[in-house]
Amino acid sequence: MSCVIQQRKNKALAAHAAAATRDLLNRVVPPTDWQQRALHSSDRPLRVAVSLCTHDSRSIGEHTQTMPRDAYTIGILLDDAHICLDVDAQRVVDAQLEAGTCYISRPGETLHIACAQGYKALHLCIPSHLLWYSADTEHACAALEGRSLGPTKDVLLLQLARTLTEMVDNGQDGPFVEQIIGMLLERVRCLRTQNTNVTRICRKTTLPNWRLQRVDSYVKSHLSDTITLSDMANAAGLSPMHFAAQFRAATGYRPHDYLLLRRLDRAKALMEDASRSMLDIALDVGFHTQAHFTTVFKRLTGKTPTAWRDGVLETRLAKIA
Predict the structure, then answer these.
(1) Helix 255-271 and helix 305-320: axis angle, to 10°?
(2) Which fold has domain 210-320?
(3) pTM of the prediction?
């Protein structure tokens, strides 16, 4: 009898050792089907490291990682996925999440992610002092020590994350990428401060979500028209001056920059139809001339509209072949 008991103990110890070994290997060397590719890392001016994390949907993927102690890590889902997320051994998420859902982890937090449908997300590692507006840093960090945020869905973060990924995949780097990362950082700051009870020193009032949704609906339905600051303010039910300040505090964008991003987002969708001329597309998304459309598109994406469409069509043909 004692021999049987000892054998059971040995099996239990072996199983425990195997589990511990797998956990250690996952921490040190991610499984071969779990890929993490660095997209951008710069010492200045932002010092934000960006990587693309993916997992093949053909098998269940699990990954464990302890976050740096001097930085926050933000994960932004690029595709829908069912995620099980444990934070410091506590289950916080077990649900189907939509693209655009993000999670902001606190420094030193240990995350374990499991997914069965594939995983594709943009990860940003942001030094702690950059996550807050400079006037808020001391008070906010003191009040929010040990707090994380999410999961929460944000359409603007998703649009910026996809734009950044696309630019890097197309070989773009430099000031264009830094500009998009800066906009991502500004949006994350807004989300972080909106989800706290900290009173900001500058006491900026942010635009309520219902007003923001009215502006977004107005812009989407009038993209082919001339849209002014007054038009957007009227949609929100505010004066132009108050609207501009509250909109930027809520989204991280100036209203004009947000409008341009919406126009380009629609243009990209239209350009997937190879029969559409660039002039027609430019007019459909609110540009008066093709030249102006080309200038703005290249400034924000690093490529001309024609070059961007050629790349999309080549990729589509390659997938078919």
Answers:
(1) 40
(2) Arc Repressor Mutant, subunit A (1.10.10)
(3) 0.52
